[in-house]
Amino acid sequence: MDYREEMKSLRDQLNTAGYQYYVLDAPVMQDYEYDRLLRRLEDLETEHPEEITPDSPTQRVGGQALESFTQVEHPVPLESLQDVFSQEEVEEFAQRMEESLTDIAYSVEPKVDGLSVALEYRDGVFVRGATRGDGRVGEDVTENLRTIRSIPMILPDKLPRLIVRGEVFMPKNVFHKLNKRREELGEPLFANPRNAAAGSLRQLDPKICAKRLLDIRVFNLQLAEGREFFTHSETIAYIASQGFQTIPHKVFSDAAGVNEEIVRLGENRDDLPFDMDGAVVKVNNLSDRAKVGSTAKCPRWAVAYKYPPEQKPSKVLDIVVQVGRTGVLTPKVVVQPVRLAGTTVTNATLHNQDFIVEKDIRIGDTVVLQKAGEIIPEVVEVLKELRPEGTVPYHLPEVCPVCGAPVARDPDGAAVRCTGAECPAQLHRNLTHFASRDAMDIDGVGPAVMLQLIDRGMVKNPADLYFLTVEELADLERMGKKSAQNAVKAIDASRGRGLERLLYALGIRQVGQKAGKVLAAHFRTFDALAAAAEEELTEIDDVGAVTAAYIREWIDNPQSQHLIGRLKEAGVAMEAAEQPGGEQFKGMTFVLTGALSRYTRDEAAALIERRGGKASSSVSKKTTYVVAGENAGSKLRKANDLGITVLTEDEFAAMLEEEKPKETAEEKAEQPQQYSLFSAPEAPNT
Q1: 111, 282, 517, 614: which one is catalytic?
Q2: What superfamily does domain 589-667 belong to in CATH?
Q3: pLDDT tens digits, residue range 319-329?
Q4: Which end of the chain is more exposed for a tag (fewer CB within 10 A), N or C?
Q5: Between the CA of residue 301 and those of 123, 133, 180, 318, 322, what are the distances in Å?
Q6: For residue 177, what pLDDT band results from cuts at 50, 70 and 90?
């Protein structure tokens, strides 16, 4: 089969399977088979990039990170809705419509709590997507929207121009998994799916958005050149025929039927995959809509009914503390079971010590609960008039409930963390970070392998990795002898990564890759670093008082000292691997922006630092040079405004070449002449 035919066949199979899965919720292909076909298509597209099409499923994983979003003017405004809060107000809305219209029909549908967007198609091809913004001007989030699998890239009808409006949301099950992961990592939780969806869609890096597994429901036809419709129901049926997921709706002839449907939707909201924050009532006939028109803000022909939040009291039985993978202590209140918004609630998050103090929550109290965004149970207030005698204020423990190490509060936030380097609660995160590419770079020992090692009790800290044998690893699931041999080889190779990589791998707070390099270059050995006082640490560039305190605290912890001892026993290098670099760029600060073709950002930054310079992420008056690649954005504009010298990538490469020692005539003459049909200039040193 010709490669073009094979690529088309693969696209058709994968797009059909994707439509069945993401739109119809009726999967027809196993995940393994889908992944196998997708990998084959990726390989073919790598070989023949000129054959990549807009509808290829490979284009949904997220492209290059953006520096900012551009503004988009909506040709048809994305209006907001007037809220109503009672059935009486719904009846008043119907009466207003009946004063100027006859034979009215009303459409009723659930209101998705997400982020409103407009999707634009030209000749059936998706060309642009934008947020609602202020209704008239939004932000271009096309690349992020491409990652949403239920948005078709090509439509069956090739209308000259089509614009539909939809609501992007994070499915409830995805939201729960995301928040659970963030809790384990000690990151702030999203309050509700809408916040999560909005935050995801506005990520400058589409790859992050792609990982969030957003979805969309389309609920309105904004513009359709070449087609005419008479009712909202007709437009929704047409939109569905083009491959979109739409919001289910029903049509009624009077306010009584509308209110009955509002009640039914409220009672069944838990069955929906999205969070629902109301019910939308619209006049169904499009010409009737045109007659009643709109105000400056809202259409007169529609309202959004808002359901009151359900709140119930319950008694606090206990307050328990969980330790996340980054060591953050998270308190939870255990309550008497209570039915709330369709589910039984037995506990609620208390966020942190400040939240507990603010509301004065105590064991034995009666508290009022509700679900934030209809999802996360939270404490609204304490009914202090019901407080029994003898209750005492609650305070988080001073030592980790898992490992007994002291806890410390973040100086710049409300989080309280365990300081133990060998805390079992943090072990999986610590091991995974230790073995990551930018740390000790232990290939073949990923998160899944780490979980098995922990579950079997084979490792209790990162140093234990160096004592594993091929036989022990080969006994793990999906490992095998060959993989085990490769893993042991990778572990052994990591012993010599050097102090700078080790310091980053240890997970000391605020000691990232850059700080690890700076500390290693200054002290040269771990023992010299361990002997340094806080005052000496703060004298080093890029090491502030907070970072110095974290370093000193980590080194002084008995668990850390035990870990370092085990690493030394394992033969892990405690000295800097690289000698200090040159001084070509000493005292200079570079900012990299745009897409570079010769180097990755990390490679270019490493070249700068190796020559004594500093690579910064933001432009300021202290910036010496800005290196601008293709599609450079706001940083380039700021550099020009500040009068900072801007280098092209070629000019930057030329500066790097200047440091190379010149060959003498004698040395050059000694080099043998080599000729080849495939000779090419040497690539820049990376």
Answers
A1: 111
A2: BRCT domain (3.40.50.10190)
A3: 999 998 778 99
A4: N
A5: 31, 22, 41, 51, 50
A6: confident
